[in-house]
Amino acid sequence: MLDVRFVRENADVVKMALKNRRSNIDLSRFLELDKERRRLLVEVEGLKSTRNIISEEIGKLKREKRDAEEKVFSMRKLSKKIKDMDIKVNEIESKLSNFMLEIPNIPHSSVPVGVDENDNKTIRSWGESPEFGFEPQAHWDIGVNLDILDFKRGVKIAESRFTLLKGFGAKLERALINFMLDLHTDEHSYTEIFPPVLVNSKSMMSTGQLPKFGAELYKCADDDLYLIPTAEVPVTNIYRGEILKEKDLPLKYTAYTPCFRREAGAAGKDTRGIIRQHQFNKVEMVKFTKPEESYDELEKLTNNAEEVLQKLGLHYRVIELCTGDLGFSAAKTYDLEVWMPSYEGYKEISSCSNFEDFQARRASIRYRMKSKKVRFVHTLNGSGLAIGRTLAAILENYQQEDGSVIVPEVLRSYMGGVEKIE
RNA sequence: GGAGGGGUGGCUGAGCGGUUGAAAGCGGCGGUCUUGAAAACCGUUAGUGGGGUAACUCACUCGGGGGUUCGAAUCCCUUCCCCUCCGCCA
User: Which residue positions in chain A have pLDDT lower than 50?
Assistant: First the structure.
């Protein structure tokens, strides 16, 4: 959520940002409502002020056992008027807040202006794509042949886009989770969290999934609970409604969770393999920082995610998303894209974003400065990494001509010393 | 699920329907003392939204919503959450 005052005073900036994002939100309607609200506020608050003064006088008269009937009578009318005006103000305020909840974040000034993913900028790349002396297979073929991925039974148990991992497939998944968590906690000093994977609507509202993207979420029919689409939701909400201490910032958390997405509107995309699933595992990193430090922390966060790929020896590139491709809540985002032989191209495996105070304002996460003023923190998060896609990348990039797959060295201690899946 | 108790400021915790936006303590901040630190003592310390160039000022906020009243943290209704006991249970 943006700062209402900022929107009011910088309408042209916000309009430009909305245009760059290709959003069709009409700000003028908002500005009208905002003006009307303030006009009414001035009026009704004046009435409330006289009500308070006269009530005080009535109290005094009653204590002195004097007659106050006349004043009480005139106050009855005043109170009624205040009540009516309050209703009007509330109506306008709820319209305004609905409006604010649907306005996306303003892209950071460094973000390239563009229409879609074709306008994203490649920042850097690491490693090289492997040379195969044979025709490489896609991970779904490798996985089925090794009997570690079972697509048919995943569908039988649930529905399409659910996959069963088996034997060394399951073990590799678990190894990746543990490897990444250990890296981020032991070497990057993040604190490990294991959060609830069902959260209430307030939490979803705070990070920006609701109200706009409810169709992406799995909702429990009888409760105000949703399956999380990412650990970002519960972990960012750890401090919802709290005031943090300046000396505790930045706070850095990492969490493994399963993630659940309906993938509404993704019909026909990535239908084969485990790239786009309704349920997938992910290790996430979340930071709460001071505003002046958040962009440094974004670089570090991105580097922390990159290090996972480097240690796994997977070729990747870093992309800076353009304004048109930026997520709703993000001010700036780097995507990490790993090399996938089956795509003969790169596939997103991590997304690292700075939300500035957009989520913090929705969630009311603040910190008290030394000067005693309270300010919103900045929140950041990034995948470190998506486990399923990492597993797919390993199968494809480490495949051998005989259909076996070499286990990257850093994972072997997590795999009981196994060097090769065959 | 059944019975009872409770939700107040950064935290703990008072609060006869009328200077209670809120005592007290802790914590925080500033100061005195000290070579320095601690202790002690003194002072200070809620948030949000309006108006005003500003000094400043007004309104709202005691889990959420509604009601009674001239006036509600205090009374009533409703809802959510937490705790205790019982039941059930990984």
Answer: none
